[in-house]
Design a protein that fits this description.
By secondary structure, the chain is α+β, with helices and mostly antiparallel strands. The chain contains 16 helices and eleven strands. The strands form three sheets. Strands 1, 2, 3, 4, 5, 8 and 9 form a seven-stranded antiparallel sheet that branches. The chain has a two-stranded antiparallel sheet with strand order 6-7. α7 runs parallel beside α12, α11 crosses α13 and α13 runs antiparallel to α14. The longest helix is centred in the middle third of the chain and has 19 residues.
Length: about 475
């Protein structure tokens, strides 16, 4: 594809097609813990008023029995997805008795490892499979890591948007193949530039000592422990590469991980005293165990795996998994963050889509880790993808110039310039790092003389509206 950022943006502008920049579907997922007012996770069963976890499409549990997961339907407007998330959140909150919802990505106070309850499911084949899978995660990585929570941003381009790009860039390519190409092009640039989301929206600069031993001052510059090597990650992540250059290679690599035995996981055993404790001893038990920050998704038919669905029908939408829970927002994310994500994902699509080598993939991971553990230092030296040193602040300024162009095009026919206003507001965080979420958390903790648990508990009560004095 003859792809150039400014040419693509001009194409939408000159042809009076800027409305297509808003053409898409959005869905949200939010994970959170039911907790006691002491800051401990709730050890009670999933509330029966929320229905069967396997049958309720909007409220289920993630790894832990205390770990609720809220899932919206896909919507044609991001505001509608946000609104539904708020409604789901309220439904869950209203049925809780003597419990409130945790406000952070890093877990609240945890009991001993063996006392953390994993999710329980019905005595069906599906239910048993889900439980064994979670037992396998606990065995492989430990339960505490699995108790980390986040926000998932699900997104697909609209049909008219894809059609317009196809007419201008598709050539003799099959349209479905073309759509897969643009999703993978966007994903590659997301991997390259995801560090800026960690800087802006990272909201886990610390954690409770029950998660791991904590030395005071060790993480003065951290923005997101959750997405760092200390947080939620595969132990095998850097040993086994997965390509993001094309759909066929991606499916092949994931299938290889699903079919290749791991010596380490084999030694752990599939059974222990007659009880199954892993689905298998392969590198990945199932597709869900691939902890990538972007996943390619397709609507599943009954009995179908994700790789089978992708092979048959291509990419339907992508799932972005890098966003921390925002403790200053009741539902864990703000509408402004969602507007920013709309602009940012278009930036990732419009940027040069060259394939990623293993060396560049390693560099994306290094920049990710630097932003996660040292991102509060805006003079942090990073390496761009021409292997040149550049400060986080200068690199961010370069990116924001293009983000502003996109936002202006998105707002061209709108009465209220919400996308430009969003970009301008986020740009203030580049000039003044004290405005980023991780700084705000640290500042509040210092202001009130709080540790991690005290801050998270106070925010949880505030987000509940202190309507339940529990």
């Amino acid at each position: 594809m003859n792809w150039n950022f400014y040419n693509i943006l001009r194409l939408f502008d000159y042809d009076d097609k800027t409305n297509l920049l808003l053409d898409g579907k959005w869905g949200l997922e939010r994970e959170t813990h039911r907790i006691l007012t002491t800051g401990d996770i709730a050890l009670t069963n999933h509330p029966s008023a929320l229905g069967d976890k396997l049958k309720n499409p909007h409220i289920t549990t993630d790894f832990g029995e205390s770990q609720l997961e809220f899932i919206t339907s896909p919507h044609y407007l991001i505001e509608e997805a946000y609104g539904e998330l708020s409604e789901i959140h309220k439904k869950a909150e209203d049925v809780l008795e003597n419990e409130i919802l945790w406000s952070m990505s890093m877990p609240p106070r945890l009991p001993r490892e063996e006392e953390i309850p994993i999710s329980k499911f019905s005595n069906s084949i599906e239910g048993k499979t889900k439980e064994v899978y979670r037992k396998g995660l606990a065995l492989r990585y430990g339960k505490k890591m699995q108790m980390i929570s986040g926000i998932h941003y699900n997104f697909s381009f609209g049909k008219e948007f894809i059609q317009y790009l196809f007419e201008n860039f598709g050539g003799n390519t099959d349209k479905r193949v073309f759509a897969d190409k643009i999703y993978f092009a966007m994903a590659r640039n997301f991997l390259k530039y995801r560090w800026i989301l960690i800087y802006l929206f990272g909201a886990s600069p610390n954690f409770d000592e029950s998660y791991a031993p904590l030395s005071e001052g060790d993480f003065n510059y951290a923005t997101s422990i959750r997405v760092s090597s200390l947080g939620y990650a595969n132990s095998t992540k850097n040993k086994y590469k997965v390509t993001y250059n094309n759909l066929e290679g991606y499916i092949k690599d994931v299938k290889r991980l699903l079919a290749t035995k791991s010596n380490f996981f084999s030694e752990l055993g599939i059974y222990n005293l007659g009880e199954q404790v892993q689905l298998n001893d392969n590198i990945l038990q199932s597709e869900g165990e691939l902890y990538s920050y972007v996943r390619f998704k397709q609507v599943l038919q009954k009995g179908e795996t994700h790789m089978e669905a992708l092979s048959k029908k291509g990419v339907d939408y992508i799932e972005i998994r890098i966003l921390d829970i925002n403790p200053f927002e009741k539902v864990g994310i703000s509408i402004g963050q969602l507007y920013f994500m709309q602009v940012f994902m278009l930036y990732c699509l419009f940027e040069s889509p060259e394939e990623i080598t293993d060396e560049i993939l390693d560099l994306t991971d290094k920049n990710h880790e630097m932003a996660a553990l040292y991102g509060k230092d805006c003079n942090l030296l990073m390496k761009d993808y021409n292997n040149q040193e550049i400060t986080l602040q200068d690199w961010s300024k370069n990116i924001f110039r293009k983000l502003r162009y996109i936002a202006e095009a998105m707002d061209k026919k709108a009465k209220y310039k919400k996308y430009v206003d969003t970009i301008n507001k986020e740009y203030e965080k580049i000039i003044n790092p004290s405005k980023i979420l991780s700084y705000k958390i640290s500042d509040e903790m210092n202001k009130y003389g709080e540790n991690f648990l005290e801050f998270g508990l106070r925010r949880a009560k505030l987000n509940t509206g202190i309507k339940k004095n529990k």
